[in-house]
Amino acid sequence: MFRKLLWATLGIAAASIGAAQPATFGIRVPIGGEATDLAVDQPRGVLYIADFTASRIDRMNLATFELESPIQVDPHPVAMSLSPDRRWLLVAHYDNPQTGTPTNNHLTLLDLVLGTRRTLALNEPPLALSFGADNQAFVVTT
Length: 142
Description:
The protein is mainly β and 142 residues long. The chain has one helix spanning 2-19, and strands at 35-41, 46-51, 56-61, 67-72, 77-82, 88-93, 106-111, 116-121, 126-131, 137-141.
């Protein structure tokens, strides 16, 4: 009797697990490229999306979830970080072809207030970056 009850209970549990669907959240917004990093700028209501294959930083309006005009950057933006004061967006560009010789590894520093940019050359491919509380950047390379 106990064995029949156990199998019946397991059968009901298996049936309810099989019928369960995963929860979905968020909104799908196609960008037409390959996103490699995100940075949220809540005061401006913008999500910055590093688009590796399109050589740009896509800007998504967080109120409407629509893409605004992108920021064109050099090829292969792989990582980015927004400074705590929201003035600087630092973008790492990774270009290490199959030969193993780095050819175009650098950083782009975008001034979001003035709309200017600076390019900072690197000897090694950048892998990650982040700003500290003092608005100074920390960059990890190979």
